[in-house]
Structures are given as structure tokens and as C-alpha cells.
Amino acid sequence: MTKSKTVAESQADFGQHIVCAQQVFAHFADRLGIAPDVALRTASCFGSGLGRADVCGCVTGALMVLGLAYGHGGACSRAEQRSLYARRDAFTAAFAEAHNGLLCREILGYDLTIPEQRALIVEKGLFASVCAPLVCAACDMLEDLL
User: Fold this and answer.
1) Where do runs of H (alpha helix) occur along the chain?
2) Whose CB among 15, 20, 74, 117 lies 3.0–4.6 Å from 110's, allowing a Cys bridge?
């Protein structure tokens, strides 16, 4: 079992511009047999809902973890594919239920691609108060699926 990620650690990572997807994926890097810097580079374009306030980077980071842990590198059986998709669907359903959706704009209540709304996100400190705990929650949820 990987040591739980703390909100303080996540907030510090955000302060260093390590986005949500990077934090989730890199948290499991050692367990998955990859170097943390490889995980950070791989997930670096997925934060802030692909930069479009779409699917939360915590979700994309988590799906990268599940794919690396249970995915296939070529042909597979239908049963293997179903098993992977069951894990994916369990994670996304639980995440959406717990956090009011899968999209950044749903979770934050603001669309970070609209400058005025992004300013409100920053002003209200939502990256620290919402996104940092979300990173931790995503990591904890993954523990149940790994």
C-alpha cells in the first residue's frame, strides 16, 4: 500500500506547478515500476481538465494508473478488457458521485477557461481548498482498486 498523500503535500505540489494529473499518476509511480519523473512528464498535459475545464486531471491521472496496472499492451481477451473497464467505470462512477461530476467546471462551479471565472477560482483559493483534497481523495479511491 502506498503512503497516503496529504492535502499539505498536494498544496505544496500545486505551488510548484505540479498539476493534479501529475500528482495522482506520480503518487503511484514506484508501485507501477516507473520513474517518478516519467510519470510527471507523461501526465503534464492533463491538468485543469486538459486545460479546457473538461475531465478533471485527478480522473485522467487515475485512469493512467489503472491502465498501467491492468491495461494490455496489445491483443487481449474480452474478459481482460471487461475487467479493466469495470475498474475504470467503478472509479469514474465513485468519483463523480463523491465530487459532483467528472468535469473541472462541474467540480469547481466555475469554468477556468473563462478569465473572469478563473480569477474567481484563484481569488477563492479553490485550487488549494478543492483541488488539493481532490488529489488525495483520488489517490485513496485508487487504493481500493489496485
Assistant:
1) 7-15, 20-27, 29-32, 36-42, 47-48, 57-70, 78-99, 104-108, 115-123, 126, 132-145
2) 117
